[in-house]
Design brief:
CATH architecture: Orthogonal Bundle
Organism: Streptomyces chisholmiae
Keywords: DNA-binding, Transcription, Transcription regulation
Order of helices and strands: HHHHHHHHHHHH
Protein name: TetR/AcrR family transcriptional regulator
Number of helices: 12
DNA-binding region: 37-56
Distance between the termini: 25 Å
Largest sheet: none
CATH class: Mainly Alpha
CATH superfamily: Tetracycline Repressor, domain 2
Domain HTH tetR-type: 14-74
Amino acid sequence: MTTDSSEAQRTELTPGAQRILEVASELFYRRGIHAVGVDTIAAESGVTKRTLYNRFGSKDNLLRIYLETRDRRWRDLVADRLAAEDAGAADPVRRALAPFAVLPDWLHESDRGCSFVNAFAELPEPEHPGNKVIVAEKKWLRTFFHDRLVEAGLPGPTAGTLAVQLLSLHEGAIVSSAIAEEPRAAQAVHDAARTLVSAALAQD
């Protein structure tokens, strides 16, 4: 499974820069992008603004790396699940639903909702480097569903439509869990997704 831009743009960080990134990531996610300034990030990281700029160049670049790091962690989680499925019976339905299987663990640490959606709401400029990461992440997930469904034997058009349905279910679970405080959301959409995929394969 490829990781597109997140793999190509992986940034090697010094321990000090990693500390800044960890602090900034928590602040961006908990308080919002525009509410958090460089002064706050530097102060809570225990560094000067000059050090922060020396390490990352700008707040926008720090934001981009924050989003890429989240993206990489998510993709790695899905990839690990897929590898576990492949090590067993490699059931095509379970492979296609790997993102749903790992969603409960992801939501456990994401009680403020999807970091990509949250950031998207604050970045109206399509050309913003952070925006590009966000769009790529959602398109990657849709493509993941599509490709696994094709591998399972569904024709391209059917797989494409079903991939959009699975993406919508998946994203809806994140919103329901965070905002409606619905603890059953992840399991509910997993069950619904399994029903949809099983029915599509039965009709093929």
